[in-house]
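Obj: model holo form, ligand = flavin-adenine dinucleotide.
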Amino acid sequence: MSGFELHSEIREEVAKLCAKFPGEYWRTLDAVRGYPTEFVHALTEAGYLAVLVPEEYGGSGLGLSAAAAILETIHEQGCNGAACHAQMYTMGTVLRHGSDAQKQHYLPKIATGELRLQAFGVTEPTSGTDTTALRTTARREGDEYVVNGQKVWTSRAEHSDLMLLLARTTPRDQVAKKTDGLSTFLIDMQAAKGHGLTLRPIRSMMNHNSCEVFFDDMRIPADTLVGTEGKGFRYILDGMNAERLLIAAECIGDAKWFIQKATEYAKARVVFGRPIGQNQGIQFPIANAYAKMRAAELMVQDGLARFERGEPCGEQANMAKMLASEASWAAAEMCVQTHGGFGFAEEYDVERKFRETRLYQVAPISTNLILSYLAEHVLGLPRSY
Ligand SMILES: Cc1cc2nc3c(=O)[nH]c(=O)nc-3n(C[C@H](O)[C@H](O)[C@H](O)COP(=O)(O)OP(=O)(O)OC[C@H]3O[C@@H](n4cnc5c(N)ncnc54)[C@H](O)[C@@H]3O)c2cc1C
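Output (holo structure tokens):
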């Protein structure tokens, strides 16, 4: 793929790091819904979570394809990047739209891991995907904003120092466009906890450390506003292509893990006096999953190359996310079937990865919304909602 860099050396080093965190590590955490502190620490120490932070702020200033190579490898090795992937890219909003003072203060600390900016508060229980209908408000009072409302599914909130929050600063009926009047804030969660900010963990299908977040007259300094008041929705949109491409890379990694696991098992498991992989009923689904993964991988690579060249890539980023999440799910389904009963046994890790990879057809954006984006913005079909 022209213009796409594979980052083979990074992949090799990340794989070595991941080898220290085998299936047993993830299984133990999964049982208690624990946070992979040691794994995140190892990635931070090695500098992998700071690859997108520019060098002048202490990061390595690499392109998105380097971050994608890291996340894909993490997933290909059977680990999970969801505990910390947002530390890589949430800072992009501050980098692109923050003030000099915010950049100088926060980015170097985010680069070293001293501060974790990996909580992203957009989704709310009532508005769902219709982001502009969100109800959390931030009202200006002197040199403060007073925040009231609720978020849901705020991942890693308990393991983050800062939260990027999207809240309404002008009521929807007082703005010309419903996308106006929303603002982004960079909130010091440690200071706010117990002072209007409450977290409540959500137990979910897989170990994801997501929370409900409640704001009850939470007072934050006015200088926590990122960029211009009322323009926050656009700032959030700006980061979405990067996020979609990185999540897509994780899905490709998952698909590769499932395909390798199934291939090894199909060669080793002997039933009726021959390896099950000798039966085409077992071979074909594995080959099919491989073909789907490779096709999705090319779309991810195309999206990354366009992103790095500074070209529009909304179409490719959305398609990459959709196709890669479908490819990883097809591979997961195939892997369970290939393993027969053992696909359900925790010690094989297949059932855990199966649960983990299911998420990506729903979050951070669900497949229907991607299809509607393609229908409307790429194919010119009438807007449906
Ligand atoms: C584990 C997990 C972690 C998450 N982490 C975060 C996070 O850190 N920060 C954050 O802000 N959010 C987070 N989310 C939220 C996630 O982004 C949303 O769940 C997702 O965008 C879907 O929104 P919803 O759940 O409100 O579904 P809804 O918007 O209620 O949609 C439900 C279903 O209806 C479909 N649908 C809705 N409208 C239409 C339409 N017009 N046409 C066709 N179909 C439609 C959707 O595609 C979906 O299948 C997380 C979610 C999960 C499960």
